[in-house]
Amino acid sequence: MVRRVGLLLLLLIGLLWASHAYLLREFANVLDATDPHFPADYVVVLPGGPETRTFAAVVILREGLAAKTAILRNPDSSAVDEGLSLPTHVVTQRILQKRGIADDRMLFLDGESRTTYSDLQLIDSIFDNEPEATIAIVTNRFHTRRARWAAANLYGDKLDQFCFVGTPSDAFLWDTWWESPQGLEMILAEYLKLVYYIVKYSTTMQRVTAVAIVLAAIVMVVLLLMRRRRYVLTPQSQAADLA
Protein backbone atom coordinates (compact mmCIF):
# COMPACT_ATOMS: atom_id res chain seq x y z
CA MET A 1 0.00 0.00 0.00
CA VAL A 2 2.75 2.45 1.00
CA ARG A 3 4.67 1.53 -2.13
CA ARG A 4 1.63 2.25 -4.32
CA VAL A 5 1.10 5.62 -2.69
CA GLY A 6 4.76 6.41 -3.22
CA LEU A 7 4.55 5.44 -6.89
CA LEU A 8 1.43 7.55 -7.37
CA LEU A 9 3.13 10.53 -5.75
CA LEU A 10 6.17 10.09 -7.99
CA LEU A 11 3.89 9.86 -11.01
CA LEU A 12 2.03 13.01 -9.97
CA ILE A 13 5.31 14.88 -9.43
CA GLY A 14 6.53 13.71 -12.82
CA LEU A 15 3.36 14.90 -14.52
CA LEU A 16 3.60 18.26 -12.78
CA TRP A 17 7.21 18.64 -13.82
CA ALA A 18 6.49 17.64 -17.42
CA SER A 19 3.71 20.22 -17.66
CA HIS A 20 5.19 22.89 -15.40
CA ALA A 21 5.63 25.47 -18.18
CA TYR A 22 1.97 25.13 -19.18
CA LEU A 23 0.81 25.29 -15.55
CA LEU A 24 2.91 28.36 -14.81
CA ARG A 25 1.58 30.13 -17.90
CA GLU A 26 -1.96 29.33 -16.85
CA PHE A 27 -1.19 30.57 -13.35
CA ALA A 28 -0.48 34.00 -14.86
CA ASN A 29 -3.36 33.75 -17.34
CA VAL A 30 -5.84 33.54 -14.44
CA LEU A 31 -4.88 37.12 -13.59
CA ASP A 32 -5.61 38.30 -17.14
CA ALA A 33 -9.26 39.36 -17.37
CA THR A 34 -8.80 41.26 -20.62
CA ASP A 35 -12.17 41.53 -22.35
CA PRO A 36 -12.23 44.52 -24.71
CA HIS A 37 -15.52 45.38 -26.37
CA PHE A 38 -15.73 48.69 -28.14
CA PRO A 39 -16.75 51.40 -28.76
CA ALA A 40 -16.77 52.92 -25.27
CA ASP A 41 -17.74 56.36 -24.06
CA TYR A 42 -14.62 56.70 -21.89
CA VAL A 43 -11.22 55.09 -21.60
CA VAL A 44 -9.63 55.25 -18.13
CA VAL A 45 -5.95 54.50 -17.54
CA LEU A 46 -5.26 53.14 -14.07
CA PRO A 47 -2.10 54.76 -12.65
CA GLY A 48 1.05 52.68 -12.39
CA GLY A 49 2.31 51.93 -15.89
CA PRO A 50 2.65 55.10 -17.99
CA GLU A 51 5.22 53.44 -20.27
CA THR A 52 2.53 51.12 -21.67
CA ARG A 53 -0.94 51.89 -20.33
CA THR A 54 -1.20 55.52 -21.46
CA PHE A 55 0.01 54.69 -24.97
CA ALA A 56 -2.62 51.94 -25.25
CA ALA A 57 -5.23 54.58 -24.39
CA VAL A 58 -3.79 56.82 -27.11
CA VAL A 59 -4.38 54.08 -29.68
CA ILE A 60 -7.93 53.54 -28.45
CA LEU A 61 -8.72 57.26 -28.69
CA ARG A 62 -7.03 57.79 -32.06
CA GLU A 63 -8.85 54.80 -33.56
CA GLY A 64 -12.19 56.18 -32.36
CA LEU A 65 -12.79 53.23 -30.05
CA ALA A 66 -13.53 55.63 -27.17
CA ALA A 67 -14.94 59.15 -27.31
CA LYS A 68 -13.10 60.60 -24.30
CA THR A 69 -10.63 59.73 -21.57
CA ALA A 70 -11.20 60.23 -17.85
CA ILE A 71 -7.94 60.98 -16.03
CA LEU A 72 -7.31 60.07 -12.39
CA ARG A 73 -5.22 62.26 -10.10
CA ASN A 74 -2.57 60.76 -7.82
CA PRO A 75 -1.56 62.41 -4.54
CA ASP A 76 1.58 64.50 -5.04
CA SER A 77 4.75 62.67 -4.07
CA SER A 78 7.68 64.30 -2.26
CA ALA A 79 9.45 64.57 -5.63
CA VAL A 80 6.49 66.53 -7.01
CA ASP A 81 6.38 68.75 -3.92
CA GLU A 82 10.07 69.55 -4.38
CA GLY A 83 9.64 70.30 -8.07
CA LEU A 84 11.72 67.30 -9.18
CA SER A 85 8.97 65.63 -11.18
CA LEU A 86 5.52 66.28 -12.60
CA PRO A 87 2.26 64.94 -11.13
CA THR A 88 1.16 61.69 -12.77
CA HIS A 89 -2.01 63.20 -14.24
CA VAL A 90 0.04 65.98 -15.86
CA VAL A 91 2.40 63.42 -17.41
CA THR A 92 -0.64 61.55 -18.73
CA GLN A 93 -2.13 64.75 -20.13
CA ARG A 94 1.10 65.68 -21.88
CA ILE A 95 1.50 62.25 -23.44
CA LEU A 96 -2.04 62.49 -24.79
CA GLN A 97 -1.45 66.02 -26.11
CA LYS A 98 1.82 65.04 -27.80
CA ARG A 99 -0.02 62.17 -29.51
CA GLY A 100 -2.70 64.49 -30.89
CA ILE A 101 -5.53 63.99 -28.39
CA ALA A 102 -7.46 67.24 -27.96
CA ASP A 103 -7.99 68.69 -24.48
CA ASP A 104 -11.76 68.62 -24.91
CA ARG A 105 -11.56 64.83 -24.99
CA MET A 106 -10.00 64.76 -21.49
CA LEU A 107 -12.02 64.74 -18.29
CA PHE A 108 -10.16 65.05 -14.97
CA LEU A 109 -11.91 63.21 -12.16
CA ASP A 110 -12.16 64.77 -8.72
CA GLY A 111 -10.53 63.02 -5.78
CA GLU A 112 -7.20 61.26 -5.38
CA SER A 113 -6.21 57.87 -6.76
CA ARG A 114 -4.52 55.83 -4.02
CA THR A 115 -5.43 52.20 -4.70
CA THR A 116 -7.09 50.18 -7.45
CA TYR A 117 -10.24 50.09 -5.37
CA SER A 118 -10.28 53.86 -4.91
CA ASP A 119 -9.62 54.29 -8.64
CA LEU A 120 -12.80 52.40 -9.42
CA GLN A 121 -14.71 54.36 -6.78
CA LEU A 122 -13.71 57.67 -8.39
CA ILE A 123 -15.13 56.51 -11.69
CA ASP A 124 -18.59 56.61 -10.10
CA SER A 125 -18.66 60.37 -10.73
CA ILE A 126 -19.00 59.61 -14.44
CA PHE A 127 -22.19 57.67 -13.77
CA ASP A 128 -23.60 60.62 -11.79
CA ASN A 129 -23.99 62.53 -15.06
CA GLU A 130 -24.10 59.64 -17.54
CA PRO A 131 -25.68 56.56 -15.92
CA GLU A 132 -25.46 54.53 -19.12
CA ALA A 133 -21.84 55.42 -19.92
CA THR A 134 -19.53 52.60 -21.06
CA ILE A 135 -15.98 52.59 -19.76
CA ALA A 136 -12.82 50.85 -20.95
CA ILE A 137 -10.30 50.29 -18.16
CA VAL A 138 -6.67 50.10 -19.30
CA THR A 139 -4.06 48.50 -17.06
CA ASN A 140 -1.40 45.78 -17.21
CA ARG A 141 -2.56 42.25 -18.03
CA PHE A 142 -1.75 40.86 -14.60
CA HIS A 143 -3.73 43.68 -12.97
CA THR A 144 -6.98 43.30 -14.94
CA ARG A 145 -8.41 40.53 -12.71
CA ARG A 146 -8.14 42.63 -9.56
CA ALA A 147 -9.48 45.71 -11.36
CA ARG A 148 -12.45 43.72 -12.66
CA TRP A 149 -13.05 42.24 -9.21
CA ALA A 150 -13.13 45.74 -7.70
CA ALA A 151 -15.55 46.95 -10.41
CA ALA A 152 -17.83 43.96 -9.83
CA ASN A 153 -17.79 44.56 -6.08
CA LEU A 154 -18.57 48.27 -6.45
CA TYR A 155 -20.99 48.35 -9.36
CA GLY A 156 -22.73 44.99 -9.47
CA ASP A 157 -25.22 45.06 -12.35
CA LYS A 158 -23.30 47.90 -14.01
CA LEU A 159 -20.30 45.62 -14.58
CA ASP A 160 -21.43 44.99 -18.16
CA GLN A 161 -20.81 48.70 -18.83
CA PHE A 162 -17.10 48.09 -18.23
CA CYS A 163 -14.50 46.39 -20.36
CA PHE A 164 -10.88 45.71 -19.48
CA VAL A 165 -7.85 46.13 -21.70
CA GLY A 166 -4.62 44.48 -20.58
CA THR A 167 -1.27 45.83 -21.74
CA PRO A 168 2.07 43.98 -21.57
CA SER A 169 4.75 44.90 -19.08
CA ASP A 170 8.21 45.95 -20.23
CA ALA A 171 9.67 44.24 -17.17
CA PHE A 172 9.16 40.61 -18.27
CA LEU A 173 7.84 38.30 -20.98
CA TRP A 174 4.36 37.02 -20.16
CA ASP A 175 4.80 33.44 -21.39
CA THR A 176 7.99 32.91 -19.37
CA TRP A 177 7.31 35.18 -16.40
CA TRP A 178 8.87 32.74 -13.92
CA GLU A 179 12.28 33.10 -15.60
CA SER A 180 12.49 36.78 -14.68
CA PRO A 181 12.97 38.17 -11.14
CA GLN A 182 10.61 41.02 -12.06
CA GLY A 183 8.05 38.57 -13.41
CA LEU A 184 8.21 36.44 -10.27
CA GLU A 185 7.81 39.48 -8.06
CA MET A 186 4.93 41.03 -10.01
CA ILE A 187 2.86 37.89 -10.60
CA LEU A 188 3.18 36.50 -7.07
CA ALA A 189 2.65 39.95 -5.55
CA GLU A 190 -0.49 40.41 -7.63
CA TYR A 191 -1.93 37.16 -6.27
CA LEU A 192 -1.23 38.34 -2.73
CA LYS A 193 -2.90 41.69 -3.48
CA LEU A 194 -5.90 39.83 -4.88
CA VAL A 195 -6.10 37.80 -1.67
CA TYR A 196 -5.95 41.02 0.33
CA TYR A 197 -8.84 42.51 -1.67
CA ILE A 198 -10.92 39.38 -1.22
CA VAL A 199 -10.25 39.33 2.53
CA LYS A 200 -11.03 43.01 2.91
CA TYR A 201 -14.10 43.42 0.71
CA SER A 202 -15.88 40.01 0.54
CA THR A 203 -18.26 38.05 2.75
CA THR A 204 -16.75 35.59 5.24
CA MET A 205 -17.52 32.48 3.16
CA GLN A 206 -16.19 34.07 -0.02
CA ARG A 207 -13.04 35.05 1.85
CA VAL A 208 -12.34 31.56 3.20
CA THR A 209 -12.98 29.82 -0.12
CA ALA A 210 -11.07 32.24 -2.31
CA VAL A 211 -8.11 32.59 0.04
CA ALA A 212 -7.77 28.81 0.32
CA ILE A 213 -7.79 28.41 -3.47
CA VAL A 214 -5.33 31.21 -4.12
CA LEU A 215 -2.92 30.17 -1.38
CA ALA A 216 -3.00 26.57 -2.59
CA ALA A 217 -2.19 27.80 -6.10
CA ILE A 218 0.71 29.90 -4.82
CA VAL A 219 2.11 26.96 -2.86
CA MET A 220 1.92 24.78 -5.98
CA VAL A 221 3.75 27.40 -8.04
CA VAL A 222 6.48 27.84 -5.43
CA LEU A 223 7.01 24.06 -5.31
CA LEU A 224 7.20 23.88 -9.10
CA LEU A 225 9.71 26.71 -9.20
CA MET A 226 11.84 25.10 -6.50
CA ARG A 227 11.78 21.80 -8.36
CA ARG A 228 12.63 23.51 -11.64
CA ARG A 229 15.66 25.22 -10.12
CA ARG A 230 16.98 21.89 -8.88
CA TYR A 231 16.82 20.49 -12.42
CA VAL A 232 18.47 23.46 -14.11
CA LEU A 233 21.60 23.34 -11.93
CA THR A 234 24.69 22.88 -14.08
CA PRO A 235 27.19 20.11 -13.34
CA GLN A 236 29.64 22.78 -12.16
CA SER A 237 27.13 24.29 -9.72
CA GLN A 238 26.17 20.82 -8.51
CA ALA A 239 29.82 20.04 -7.79
CA ALA A 240 30.18 23.34 -5.97
CA ASP A 241 27.16 22.52 -3.84
CA LEU A 242 28.60 19.12 -2.96
CA ALA A 243 31.92 20.68 -2.07
Report on the architecture of this protein.
With 243 residues, the protein is an alpha/beta fold. The chain folds into two domains: 40-167, HUPs (Rossmann fold, 3-Layer(aba) Sandwich), CATH 3.40.50.620; 174-231. The chain has eleven helices and five strands; from the N terminus they run H-H-E-H-E-H-H-E-H-H-E-H-E-H-H-H. The protein has helices at 2-18, 20-29, 53-62, 78-81, 88-98, 116-122, 124-129, 144-155, 181-201, 204-231, 235-242; strands spanning 40-45, 66-73, 106-112, 135-140, 162-167. It has a five-stranded parallel β-sheet, sandwiched between helices.
Distance between the termini: 38 Å
Q: How many DSSP helices?
A: 11
User: What ranges have pLDDT less than 50 throughout 5 or more consecutive residues?
Assistant: 233-243
- Please state the average pLDDT score: 83
The percent of residues in helical segments reads 55-70%
The CATH architecture of the largest domain would be 3-Layer(aba) Sandwich
